RNA sequence: GCGAUCGUAGCUCAGUUGGUUAGAGCGCCGGUUUGUGGUACCGGAGGUCGCGGGUUCGAACCCCGUCGAUCGCCCCA
């Protein structure tokens, strides 16, 4: 692997050079997403890869570890702090405000591309990673949540991903959420000494996170922790009911996950993740970073960026993780593989390949190395038709070969007959 | 930030209890078959065994450090 000899610089930790079957799977995920988002009439949006640090710091919350340690921030030549986007949502929210996209409300947008987080890489987690993303902004009704989730569910089905289930929860409105949080702190504080060290720390900084602790010492107390349902207002209860009814109507399977939370304060109501079922092939393929697609309703975000209160809901999914679940994809088979068996006929080969490609057939040309071996190399390329170009008694000979009944055989023969006419 | 495992040709890996010029497969380059031919045969190039130090008569192999990778913890927008 990485040699330190010589002067070649190494790739940055946590970046990937994606090639071969992985690249094919990656492209397949993106192409499927583009197709499905059109079915749901989400409009394509292209966003900057970096923003003022403020965009992320204010939306995420100034005090969290995320802002202080886990963002790729730097100063530009003017001394302004900029940050490579760690997520799509904050940038889209900023654009909504600065570009007056309110005029398009409710706005359904989709995008995909690279994101950056300064973290220790592990399976399914990189410093530069890639996500697909879908947002509905300016829609307060539960129908928006339902449509968004139906799209996510259809995407996973069209990708052929099995053994992944929608885990669904509600965080209620701001008041419900705050009351629940207070009750949780009270509950866990009573047994603080028996919690894991990590969770004793969480108690002060992020008590909701104790609910998804992996430590068995914590899990005993998680089971009988206060449930959000006891704190939901009538409106919040009704909202969640409409979401679940809508999902049932849409045929989207879901499971209530009372411990599913979001780390950030701007989330309200619906929170969800598509997670591999325990013991499934998907779970084995993903390792410990297993959430495939996640999101929720973030009615509190716009205000943190100085905009008018705006209801919105969205999700994002890691392309690399999805690619790990879709299986190996091979590049498309070539229509024609061309062996130029003598250098004297190189230009004939070029003319033939151009004519074939112009006709809409894909072609690969082999014209380097030992002339005797070019046929062998061309034959190794997976192609529907094999064409060799050679000279016999001063005449140019096109020799075509394919499996019986291959439609491209006749097309190539016709193209060659018209060559030079 | 913490922990575990790993680091030998372009790639995937062998390398026995430390013992002479470090191997295989694939790939690459060249040659053989006077040949309408893909899977054969022969040959070649390519490695200061991640890097630095130590132990030893002798280190790819043992010890320390360092860099890198992988996986996990923390975190997870």
TrEMBL record:
Residues 1-326 form the Aminoacyl-transfer RNA synthetases class-II family profile domain. InterPro entries: aa-tRNA-synth_II, aa-tRNA-synth_II/BPL/LPL, His-tRNA-ligase, HisRS-like_core, HisRS/HisZ. SUPFAM superfamilies: Class II aaRS and biotin synthetases. It is an enzyme of class 6 (ligase). Keywords: Aminoacyl-tRNA synthetase, ATP-binding, Cytoplasm, Ligase, Nucleotide-binding, Protein biosynthesis. It catalyses: tRNA(His) + L-histidine + ATP = L-histidyl-tRNA(His) + AMP + diphosphate + H(+). Its main location: cytoplasm. GO terms for molecular function: histidine-tRNA ligase activity. It is found in: Cytoplasm. The keyword Oxidoreductase does not apply. Belongs to the class-II aminoacyl-tRNA synthetase family. Homodimer. NCBIfam families: hisS (TIGR00442). This is Histidine--tRNA ligase.
């Amino acid at each position: 692997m990485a040699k330190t000899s010589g002067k070649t610089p190494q790739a940055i930790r946590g970046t990937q050079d994606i090639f071969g079957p992985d690249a094919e799977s990656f492209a397949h995920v993106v192409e499927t997403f583009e197709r499905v988002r059109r079915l749901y009439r989400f409009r394509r949006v292209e966003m900057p890869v970096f923003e003022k640090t403020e965009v992320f710091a204010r939306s995420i919350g100034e005090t969290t570890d995320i802002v202080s340690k886990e963002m790729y921030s730097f100063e530009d030549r003017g001394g302004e702090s900029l940050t490579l986007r760690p997520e799509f949502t904050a940038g889209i929210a900023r654009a909504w405000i600065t570009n007056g996209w309110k005029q398009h409300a409710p706005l359904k947008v989709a995008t995909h591309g690279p994101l950056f987080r300064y973290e220790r890489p592990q399976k399914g987690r990189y410093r530069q990673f890639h996500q697909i993303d879908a947002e509905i902004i300016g829609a307060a009704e539960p129908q928006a949540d339902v449509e968004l989730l139906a799209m996510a569910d259809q995407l996973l089905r069209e990708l052929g991903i099995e053994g992944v289930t929608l885990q669904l929860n509600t965080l209620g409105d701001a008041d419900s959420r705050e009351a629940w949080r207070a009750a949780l702190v009270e509950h866990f504080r009573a047994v603080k000494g028996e919690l894991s060290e990590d969770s004793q720390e969480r108690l002060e900084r992020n008590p909701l996170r104790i609910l998804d602790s992996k430590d068995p010492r914590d899990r005993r107390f998680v089971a009988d922790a206060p449930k959000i349902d006891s704190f939901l207002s009538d409106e919040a209860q009704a909202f969640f009911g409409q979401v679940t009814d809508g999902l049932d109507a849409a045929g989207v399977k879901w499971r209530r996950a009372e411990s599913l939370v979001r780390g950030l304060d701007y989330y309200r109501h619906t929170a969800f993740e598509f997670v591999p079922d325990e013991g499934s092939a998907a779970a084995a393929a993903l390792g410990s970073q297993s959430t495939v697609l996640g999101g929720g309703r973030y009615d509190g975000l716009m205000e943190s960026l100085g905009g008018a209160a705006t209801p919105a809901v969205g999700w994002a999914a890691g392309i690399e993780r999805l690619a790990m679940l879709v299986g190996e994809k091979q590049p498309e088979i070539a229509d024609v593989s061309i062996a130029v068996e003598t250098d004297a006929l190189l230009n004939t080969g070029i003319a033939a390949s151009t004519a074939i490609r112009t006709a809409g057939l894909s072609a690969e040309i082999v014209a380097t190395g030992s002339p005797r071996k070019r046929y062998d190399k061309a034959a190794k390329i997976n192609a529907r038709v094999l064409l060799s170009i050679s000279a016999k008694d001063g005449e140019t000979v096109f020799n075509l070969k394919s499996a019986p009944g291959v439609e491209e055989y006749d097309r190539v023969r016709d193209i060659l007959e018209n060559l030079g006419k």
